[in-house]
Design goal:
The protein is of the alpha+beta class. The protein has 9 helices and 19 strands. Among the domains are: 35 residues, no CATH class; 184 residues, Probable tRNA modification gtpase trme, domain 1 (Gyrase A, domain 2), CATH 3.30.1360; 73 residues, Aminomethyltransferase beta-barrel domains (Elongation Factor Tu (Ef-tu), domain 3).
Length: 433
């Protein structure tokens, strides 16, 4: 047994170190190249050449490279203009992005360009239909409910599909009232005021919505007032609306907002939501106060058939025509009116399940045809019934156009349709790139 105080020589290649041996740099033997220096197997490999031992000994590596060069192998060099540093990994180009290559256009930029093109087309269509740059339509048959009370925001946020709790005074949001099965009872616009909330409701739905909300008030401090009879509304449409308002000193709010205006001792609300044209707005106020506004602005009424063409071309489903209590939001392409992050609301479990599983059987689509169509026309693909037309009109620019539900498997852009003997094709809804 060795003395505990003695230092035992340790082998290292073909050299050894002892207490009396001179201190010199130990070097492993070439008989075992790379022992303890390479991989876990104890054998080093040169990743560039694939030759064992070349990485562990400079002399061997030099001889190896010389042999490859004599054999005609040339060292690979990185092409000029390519970068392998961390900065090259940024963006969509990847690690081999050539100099001078432009970055892909941002998605938001493409979306803004698409919206600008759509606005230009709608402005051209409006002027072709009407011969003017602005017109008005009477929307007095829509409903209007006013909610007050300290619990109004919390209560309404638990009832409607969109997030009401984030609204500040002067903001609006588009929302749906769903039933417990996740189907649409009404679509509406919520306006947030300092002292109340206003619900601008689709035609013929105010009574049903008021009763539905009232049944869910248990111990909440919420009071309903129906303003449908006292307040009216006008829809101002067309690219010239801004100029008409400017002449009367009236503001033009940003999309998703409204302005409170005092005029002739009465309060009006100017709202950028729910219009047929991108530049349009709605004016809400006492009915007698709104009576003279069109003449003050120099506007003529918008014909109903022209309004229908604009609505279908803009892909705006109408409740009672294209949307009913039979439809889920996803079917009617109204998911923009649903918040999936705000928490519980009536019908939330169903619409969340549909979103995660994609379990709808049909979708609302925009259709162009070779001849005018009628509401109720059967839609067929390869001889099989796949849907029905819900709205139809004839555009002076693009010809017959319609909205209709089509079975999910066939509801894709470019699908050819047989519309009771008339050829058609699915062209929408329009989507941002």
């Amino acid at each position: 047994m060795a003395d505990a105080g003695a230092r035992v020589p340790q082998p290292l290649g073909d050299l050894s170190l002892s207490p009396d041996a001179p201190r010199e740099r130990a070097r492993p033997s070439r008989a075992w190249p790379g022992v303890g220096l390479g991989s876990l197997t104890g054998v080093a490999s040169d990743r560039r050449t694939g030759d064992r031992g070349a990485a562990s000994d400079p002399l061997l590596h030099r001889d190896h490279v010389s042999r490859r060069r004599r054999a005609g192998h040339r060292q690979r060099r990185r092409p000029a203009g390519c970068r392998e540093d961390a900065r090259a990994l940024e963006g969509d180009a990847g690690p081999h992005r050539a100099r001078g290559l432009k970055r892909p256009v941002a998605r938001a930029t493409l979306a803004a360009s698409a919206r600008a093109d759509q606005e230009g087309l709608m402005a051209e269509l409006f002027e072709t239909l009407t011969g003017v740059t602005a017109a008005y339509r009477d929307l007095g048959d829509r409903g209007l409910l006013r909610l007050t009370g300290v619990d109004r925001v919390r209560f309404l946020n638990g009832m409607l599909s969109n997030d009401v709790s984030t609204l500040v005074p002067g903001e609006t949001c588009y929302a749906l009232q769903l039933n417990r099965k996740g189907r649409i009872l009404a679509d509406l616009i919520v306006l947030a005021l300092e002292e109340s909330l206003l619900l601008d409701l689709a035609v013929g739905t105010s009574t049903e919505v008021s009763q539905f909300l009232g049944r869910h008030i248990i111990a909440d401090d919420v009071i309903f007032d129906d303003w449908s009879q006292d307040w009216g509304r006008l829809g101002l449409e067309g690219p010239g609306v801004g100029d008409a308002l400017l002449k009367q000193g009236l503001p033009r709010p940003e999309p998703g907002r409204f302005e409170r205006v005092q005029r002739d001792g009465r309060e009006w609300l100017l709202l950028r939501e729910g219009n047929l044209t991108p530049e349009g707005l709605q004016v809400l106020g006492p009915r007698e106060a709104l009576a003279g506004l069109p003449s003050d602005l120099g506007l003529e009424p918008l014909a109903e058939d022209a309004a229908e063409v604009l609505r279908i071309e803009a892909f705006l489903p109408a409740y009672g025509t294209d949307v009913s209590e039979r439809n889920f939001p996803a079917e009617a392409r109204l998911e923009r009116a649903v918040s999936y992050s705000k928490g519980c609301f009536i019908g939330q479990e169903i619409v969340a399940r549909i979103r995660s599983r994609g379990a709808v059987k049909r979708f609302l689509t925009q259709i162009r045809a070779e001849a005018p169509l009628e509401v109720g026309t059967t839609i067929r693909v390869d001889g099989t019934d796949v849907g029905r037309i819900t709205s139809a009109a004839v555009s002076p620019v693009a010809g017959p156009v319609a909205l209709g539900y089509v079975r999910a498997a066939e509801a894709t852009l470019g699908t050819s349709l047989d519309l009771d003997g008339v050829a058609g094709v699915i062209v929408g809804p329009p989507s941002e790139p």
